[in-house]
Amino acid sequence: MKLAIIAGPASVGKTAVVRQIIREFCTSWNPAYLKVDVVRAFEDEELREEFGIPTRKVYSGDLCPDHTGIMVLQDAISWAQNLGSGLLIVESAGLCLRCTPYTTQSFGIAVLSAVSGSNSPLKMAPMIAQADVAVVTKTDLVSQAEKEVFREYIKEVAPSIDIIETNAIQGTGMRYLMKALAACPDLTDATQIVLRGSPPLGVCTICVGKKDIGWQRHFGVIRPLEEADNIYRGD
Amino acid sequence: MYGTGRSLFMVGDQTSEITILPGANRRGEREGFDGITIHPGDTLSIVGPTGSGKSAFINDIEVLAQADTVTGRRILVNGAPPSDEMARDPSKKPIALITQSTRVIADLDVSRFLELHIEARKQTHIGDLVENTIALANEFTGEQITVTMSMTALSGGQTRALLIADAILIGRTPILLLDEVENAGIFKERVISCIKECKKTVIFVTHDPYLALSTDRRVVMSNGAVVKVLEPRERERATIERIAEIDDLLWDLRERIRSGDLIGDSGGVIEKEIGVPA
Questions:
Q1: Nearest chain A Cα to B65, which residue?
Q2: Tens-place pLDDT, residues B138-151
Q3: Domain containing residue A73
Q4: Mean pLDDT computed over every residue of chain A
Q5: Residue B116: which of A116, A149, A163 has the nearest Cβ?
Q6: Which of B15, B87, B106, B240 is most buried when burial is the number of CB atoms within 10 A of its CB?
Q7: How far is CA B219 from CA B45, B48, B70, in A?
Q8: How far is B160 from chain A (nearest CA, A)?
């Protein structure tokens, strides 16, 4: 079974990319799909109805959605393997863009939108740099010149990343994503899978529900405006 | 003006020949042509009612479709399927598509945007090229563009004028696809003469009679498919000259309306033409 992990900000077209992948491999790989989101998600129901494939969702609620994805990934792999699936697609919620949900033994897809502003690749650098491919959606809405400029910004973050430009609704350009995904090796041993990057330190008291603002009233990893680095303060 | 910049037109790859292989119409029936080959310097117009598939036709060319779009068409470059590199890296693609809805979203000013594009194209003489590109764009539009303007603040006409100039001078793109660009704020005659001067291949999607008649070939679309390819040669020559006069007349009228004239009582060109007594 192959594992594809899809990350990217909200509303860039992650699900449109997923839809194209499922359409392509629906019969050959019997794909399974897991959506991770915070409060509400509908993609699982839509895709199950449209393609008749097994889908699930998990709400992170009070936990960080990328952490949730990491927590449930081992279970999700077992679920898909037990269904005899040849491809498990995991779609992230697309929030802080700092956690990179990609793992070893998987195919990491970062989805960006060509209309999100030229600095956006710089703002989500870790998410792009650790992916296998960057899929740029909505390229039909911008000029040739702007596509090239956007590409330069992506290359600044990840000089050798494979960039795929697409109008994901129509599916143009997606043949290159399908080729790359088909060429990606199956996962070999799920118990050995680890994250490609370290998630940010998150052990502050905001994480556990303390609502005060200002570092003075928190413990754990904290930071003032004027200090460059995070500092640790015990209770 | 842009002075010695004109010699820049002739640099770059001018040899790309494009062939469009047939797909199917909306009923799934094969299109009625074997292949349309567009040679360097050719001009084509794509005509047909709204919704007939004109934009889809040039989008197929733009994405170098390989039976992976709704139409099922395939595009060959110089007689062969395009290399992956050409299809995927926009700076290697010999095609620039500019539409009436093409917007620039980049939060950059005009000079920075052009500089980045020049860097992406690995070109030198950045300062001159930025200046020449803006000067050429200003020949295409009546609203002056300056280096410090924000790209997102340009009007529709300014955006199109700048992107066409960019495609000619910075992208040095041999093939231009212009989708209904006549609709807002550019001097189409100046664009056409410049494109012909630099021996660019150009494909217009257009509802404009003058533009449609001034191209070498007309591709007629219906129900998602090409139904005719007309090659009028000299047969429409006399008509074009007359249409050009009418077009000038309408241009003049449009300008007068824009500037607040009352029409019909000034004894101007339009009044003489339509026989309004002075």
A1: A172
A2: 999 988 999 999 99
A3: 2-192
A4: 89
A5: A149
A6: B106
A7: 6, 8, 19
A8: 10
Same domain (yes/no): A49, A121: yes
Q: Which two tokens stand for residue B102?
A: 């093409």
What strands lie across the sheet with B36-38, from one edge to the other?
B36-38, B18-21, B74-77
Q: What is the CATH number of the domain that holds A176?
A: 3.40.50.300
Judge if A9 and A72 occupy the same domain: yes
Q: Which helix (H) or strand (E) holds B135?
A: helix B126-140
Are residue A130 and residue A232 in the same domain, yes or no? no
Cα separation, B101 vs B90, in Å, equals 19
Q: What is the residue-averaged pLDDT of chain B?
A: 86
Instruction: Please state, in angstroms and rounded to a whole number, the distance separating the CA atoms of residues A57 and A171.
Output: 25
Half-sphere exposure of B230 (CA within 13 A, CB side): 16
Same domain (yes/no): A205, A228 = yes
Q: How far is CA A71 from the centre of its chain?
A: 15
Could you count the other beta carbons within 10 Å of the beta carbon of residue B73? 24
- Are A230 and A159 contained in the same domain? no
Indicate yes or no: CB of A144 within 8 angstroms of CB of B116. no
- The pLDDT of residue B9 is 42
Q: How confident is the model at residue B121 (pLDDT cuts 50, 70, 90)?
A: confident
Domains of chain B and CATH, by start: 3-231 (3.40.50.300), 235-278 (no CATH)
Whether A209 and A183 share a structural domain: no
Residues A177, A220 within the same domain: no
**Contact residues, chain B, for A150 at CB < 8 Å:** 106
- Nearest CB among A117, A118, A172 relative to B68 is that of A172
Q: Three-state SS string across A12-54, please?
A: CCHHHHHHHHHHHHHHHHCCEEEEEECCCCCHHHHHHHHHCCC
Task: Give chain A's domain count.
Answer: 2
B91 and A163 in contact by Cβ < 8 A?
Answer: no
Answer for the pair A7, A100: CB distance below 8 angstroms, yes or no: yes
Q: How far is A141 from chain B (nearest CA, A)?
A: 6
Q: Note whether A172 contacts B65, CB cutoff 8 Å.
A: yes
Task: Check CB contact under 8 Å for B105 and A152.
Answer: no
**What is the rounded distance in angstroms from the CA atom of residue A173 to the CA atom of residue B258?**
43
Task: Please identify which residue in the block is written with the tokens 């056409």.
Answer: B192
Residues A41-60, mean pLDDT to the nearest whole number: 94
Torsion of CA B248, B253, B258, B264, to 10 degrees: 170
Q: Is the pLDDT of residue B103 over 80?
A: no
Q: In degrees to the nearest 10, what's the CA dihedral of A205, A211, A213, A214? A: -20
CA distance A116 to chain B (A): 8
Yes or no, beta carbons of B116 and A141 under 8 Å apart = no
Q: Return the structure tokens found at A58.
A: 């998990």
Chain B closest CA to A43's CA: distance in Å?
24
Count Cα neighbours of A75 within 13 Å in the Cβ-side half-sphere.
9
| Mean pLDDT, range B195-205, rounded to an integer | 89
**Partners of A195 in the β-ladder:** A103
